[in-house]
Amino acid sequence: MGSATTLAPEATIAELVRSNATTDVAEVLTWVTEVAELTRPEAVVWCDGSQEEWAQLTSEMVEAGTLLPLNKDLRPGSFLARSHPGDVARVEDRTFICSENEADAGPTNNWRAPAEMKAELQPFFAGSMRGRTMYVVPFSMGPVGGAISQLGVQLTDSPYAVLNMRIMTRMGQDALDGITAGSEWVRTVHSVGAPLEPGQQDVEWPCSDTKYITHFPDTLEVWSFGSGYGGNALLSKKCFALRIASVMGRNEGWLAEHMLLLKLTDTATGKDYHLSAAFPSACGKTNLAMLQPTIPGWKVETIGDDIAWLRPGKDGRMYAINPEAGFFGVAPGTGASTNPVAMETLWGNTIFTNVALTDQGDVWWEGMTDEVPDHLIDWQGNDWTPESGRPAAHPNSRFTVPIQQTPTLADDWYEQDGVPLDVILFGGRRATNVPLVAQSLSWEHGVFVGATMGSEKTAAQEGSVGELRRDPFAMLPFCGYNMADYWGHWLEMGEKLGEKAPKIFQVNWFRKGADGRFLWPGFGDNSRVIDWVIRRIAGEVEGRETAVGTVPAEGELNLDGLDLPAADLDELFAIDPASWLAEAELTEEFFAQFGDRVPARLHQELETLRGRLSA
Ligand code: GTP
Ligand code: SPV
Ligand code: MN
Fold it and tell me: Going by CATH, does the domain composed of 13-66+88-253 fall within 3.40.449.10?
C-alpha cells in the first residue's frame, strides 16, 4: 500500500494528495485534491489492493477495536465487525437521485436538483474527514477492459469500507491504470461523517445520525455521508452498479440489474445454459446462486449473487457479467441444510458484520446450526443465552467473502465479455396469488410481470417487515431513473433482441398455506423448478397455459422423492381469478402514479390479463 504521507504541517492538501499518488491522470488528481480540500483528511492513502495492504489495514483496525479477529483455527483470516445499532441497513428514505429534472428520477425515488443537493451536502462534507485518513480506492466492475466492464474510484474515510471493497470488487492498481485521460469512470465519495478533533478517542463504528446517499447520474457521481453500512458505504454496489449504471445502460443500450447469475449444465448432454434471476433484497438470490440440486441431471455453478449487467453482444444475443468479485450475503438462515455451498465458502478470509460471537471465538447466527449455543456475545456485544428472548445476530447481519472461495464457482465468472443468457426469472415473497412457476406469454408479458412484481418487506431495508410492496424488477430502491422509462427501455431491449431474447419466467418460493407455513420446501428443491424451466425452453415439455402464464402440465414437474401433499401442490399453482382481478385493480393504481410515461404496451398487457382472467 502507498504509505500514509506525513508532511510538514504547512504542506498543502494538493501536496498531500500528490506526494504518493499512483496515477498521473490529471482528472483523477484534480478530483481527489478537490475532495480532500473539502473534507480535510489528515492523511491520504492510494490503495493498491495488495495482500500487504490488507494485512496492514486489518491489524490497524484490530488495534483500534473496529475489528475483532476470529479464532484462527476455526475461521482463519476472518474478522467480526459490530456496527452502531442505528446503522444496520440501507436507508431508502435518505437515498436521493439528483437528475436535472425531477420527472427523470420518477415518483419512486427521492429527488433533489443536483446544484441544490451539492449545496445541501457542502456543510456536511466540509471538514468531515478531519483527523482521519482518506483512502483512494480504484476498482473495476467486471474484468478490467471487458466489453461490459466499467471503472470507478471511491474516496472514503472508512477502512472498513476499504476492506469490503477489496473483497467486493477488483480493487487496486490495475483498475487505476485503466483510467486514462478522457476515459469514462465513476467518481464516488464516502464519509462516515465523524471527524476527530485532535486527541479525540475514536469509537468502534463511527457514523452520523444524519445520512445522505446521493446520486448524480448526469455527472456519474455518488456522494454518501453518515453511514458505514453495506449498500450505503460500499459505493460500487447498489450506488454505482445499479443506480448509476442503470442510467448508463439506458443511455448506452444495456441493462444493470439486481440479479443473480448461474450456469446450468445438463449432465447427460453436456449442453449448458445461463440463467439470471431478479428477486428483491433478502428474497433468495444468494441461495439460488449456490443451488445444490436435489434431483439428478444438472450441474449448477455460481457466477453472481446480487448484480448482473446485461448487454447485447455482436451475435445479437444478450450477454451477462457479474460485475462484482465477492458476496455481501445475508447471514441468518444460512446453514449446512439450506446453503451448504455458502457455509463452505465462508471457511475463512471473511468479514462478518453484526453476527454473534461464540465462546470459542467463532461466529454464529440464527439458522446456522440446528443446535443453539448455550452462550454467545450478541451482535451488540452483550451476553446472550437462548432465554434472552432476542436474536443473537441482527436479522440483516452479513458476511463479505471473496467469490473465488466458492466451491461451485463457474469459470464463466472470469469471462472477459460475459456469457450468453437463456433465461430470466422474476420472483418475490408472495404468500398468495403468484404460482410456484409460470412462463411469460411473450417478452412484453414478461416485462409486465417484472413491472408489477410485489414482495413482502424484509430486514434488508428499514421499515416494517412483512408489508407487501410493489418492487418492479426488484429494482424499486435501485433504479436511477424514472421507473416507467426503465420499463420502456426493457421493452426496447426485447425489440432489439427479437427471437434471440432470453425467455422470462415468474417464480415464487414463498407461497403459504392457510395455516401460514411455506407450501414449497425451497432451497435445493428449487432445482425442480429450474429443471422444468430449462426443459420448457428446450421444447421438451408443453406446459399448460393459464391466465397468468404457462405452468407445468400434470406430471411435468419432477417431484421424485419429494414428500409434497397433493393438496399443497394444487395450492402452489392455484389461480384465483377474483384475487388476481383485485390485484389488477391495484396494478392500475400503481401505474397511475407514473402518468403517461407508462408504456402503452403495459396498459395493453393489463387489459389482456383482465380479459384472460374473466374468460
Ligand atoms: P440480498 O443480499 O439482500 O439482495 O438478499 P438475497 O436475495 O441474496 O437473499 P438470500 O439468498 O440471502 O436469502 C434471504 C433469506 O431468504 C435467507 O434467510 C434465506 O434462508 C431465505 N431463503 C432463500 N431461499 C429460500 C427458499 O427457497 N425458501 C425459503 N422459504 N426461504 C428462502
Ligand atoms: C440488498 O439489500 O439488496 C443487499 C445488501 O444486497 S446492500 O449491499 O446493503 O444493498
Ligand atoms: Mn441485493
Answer: yes
